[in-house]
Amino acid sequence: MSLGAGGAALVAALAAPAHAVTPAEAGRTAAGHLPGWQLKDTGTAARFRGLSAVSRSTAWVAGSQGTVLRTTDGGRSWKDVSPPGAAAEALEFRDVEAFDGRRAVVLAIGEGEASRVLRTEDGGATWTESFRNTDAKAFYDCITFFDARHGLAMSDPVDGKYRILSTSDGGRKWRVLPSAGMPAALPGEAGFAASGQCLVSSGANDVWLATGGGATGRVLHSSDRGLNWTAAESTVPAGDPARGVFGLAFRDRHHGLAVGGDYRADQPSPQAAAVTGDGGRSWRQSTTPPPAYRSGVAWLPHSRLAALAVGPTGTDLTVDGGRTWRTVDTGSYDTVDCTADFGCWASGEKGRVARLEP
What we know:
By secondary structure, the protein is mainly β. It has two helices and 28 strands. The chain has helices at residues 5-15, 23-26, and strands spanning 36-40, 50-53, 59-62, 68-71, 79-80, 92-98, 104-111, 116-120, 128-132, 139-145, 151-158, 161-167, 175-176, 199-202, 206-210, 216-222, 230-237, 243-250, 256-262, 273-276, 284-285, 296-299, 307-311, 314-318, 326-329, 335-338, 344-347, 353-357. The strands form six sheets. Strands 6, 7, 8, 9, 10, 11, 12 and 13 form an eight-stranded antiparallel β-sheet that branches.
């Protein structure tokens, strides 16, 4: 599908040198004549690292203190649909996968029983806990779905290998997949539960897993829904528990983007993005990467070349498939997600949720 007149105009406006943002413009959230993020009042101070965009009108966010919100009117109003008791237990929701305005699955992270999966079929009016981790060595970071029935969740390495959960009924039941096809983790290696994008899928069978902390930032790939994996080094530096690949986005089974860096605010991230054109078998460093750590990334709808990357210090745009990036906003966001009807959403700290406006 082509980019379409509306999408092409939006990308052109974002990329136009004449609209290279000044500090004043970058902070502007009332759309005015500039395309960019328009903040939506969520009425909460929770940090939303989990985001699932269904359309321009419908989106789900999940975050700290057991908070889950849903909008069905483009962000004009938000309904608190947090699972009962989640706030009291201070559950940390770091990922949400929504199938529509009524059905969604959320992942709570943490050691042992803090890692849980909950599911709703009625817009968050009721929730069912479908998985609770009982292995003290496991720590679940991200979930992804291939379709409304088939999905995976990933844990940091257990006994030297990443652990993968699988569901074939929309998240109602989960089982641990065999580890025989999973390569060994590097010493100190783990995933980052920073944006819900350390495990992403494209199509019916392909899935990728982002890592950091080890000697190199790696991307693992499976073409059979998580049974067998291969590992490839990215160009994003690791070698420290705070550094590595934090977020992935694939527009098809071949073309992908990786973003990351060092999440510590006082540390530089000089090689914070990489691209692949062969399904993650090899990665190339971005010629002009984002200037700082980025945790989330998403392809713009119906575009082969345009994408957005977000992090605590800003949003960057690429219009050449990830080779070069340019900062277009300086607001703080942790994750970003786009839908086919040009519904691009971002979320982050202090209750921040925004939608991209033309």
